[in-house]
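Known limitations

Structure tokens in this collection are predictions and should be treated as such. Users comparing against experimental data should check residue numbering before alignment. To illustrate the layout, the record for Glycosyl transferase family 1 domain-containing protein is reproduced below. The input appears on top and the generated tokens appear beneath it.
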Amino acid sequence: MAMVKILLLARLTPQSGNLTTAQRIKGHLAETGHTCELQNSEFFETSEGFRHYIVENEFCCVIGIHLWRAGKFLLDCPVPFSMIFGGTDLNEHVQDSKKLHVMTQVVEKAKNLVAFSQTMASKAEEIWPNVKPKLIVQPQAVFTCPSENFTEIDMICKMKECATANESLHLKNILRGALIIFLLVAGLRPVKDPMFLFKIFSDWHKQDSRVFLVVVGPEIDLEFSKMVKETAKKYPGVIVMPALSQPALHAGIKHCITAVVNTSVSEGMAACILEAMDLDTVVLARKIPGNECLIKHDENGLLFQTPEEFLSLAKQVAYNEKYRERLTLGGKEYISNNHSLRLENETYKSVVRTLMN
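Generated tokens:
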């Protein structure tokens, strides 16, 4: 097959899971000699403007991530395209009849549809019964790159910058290695529900001042982000930090924290869960379909439904080193067996071959 020019269209918020996924796919396609460019779906206002961009830049095909955010610009796309389900497109946006109408047209016109899990593929089949021949199930692969220069001291300094005066003083006086940090990695928007555990964590912090919930991620919904940061100030032991670079975040997960937390009400396949497992760190995640397809409870991670259930599990993780070790071993084995870079590479090269045939 001749080398082609491919556009990869997605919402490319800095330090987001979407950006990580898009960059990894771009790398797979570039390996084969294709020219692959990333473009933020928020760059466009209309499908006409997108069509002009495709023609002007002589793209041969398009791969879009998210049926609504990227797909709405592809209805008049002049070149073949395939779509990758995002998660909220299948779980949230389908409930809006106008969005569903647009996404249905996108599904009909797409050459292939990639789902990160069988759960997502089954959901798509429920909504669009004729879609099965186009479906490809390809779990996200994992690539982690922890910085050698980001240490526990750096993590504490970042926390102090965002903490209240009392918390900063406490962090200054605490011994290295004594903190019990649960890290919630999320772009701040309602679907991530970052405030779900604020109260239960603050109550625990009052009992054990070493315990902190640290929320880290970009401000995607600005009004919501403002509310999250203001609310956190009312709960001692809860700190909201700006996004870290990926190498710093990965180093923080591997060396500085006790566990990664996911509180989302909807997920496709959370990159931070996969990365935490790969980095030998325990994951506690809300029991929703997108997380259940990754985590087998008490084997490679933990699932919870209520703050009280979370607290019971989190205390076992915090205070029982052997329990943590067993869960991290389970997570690492799961990643090795199910989230191969090689298979992901082959899948997306195949997607491009289909687009150009």
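For this record: The longest strand covers residues 5-10. Residues 5-141+340-356 form a domain with the Rossmann fold fold (CATH 3.40.50.2000). Please report discrepancies through the issue tracker.
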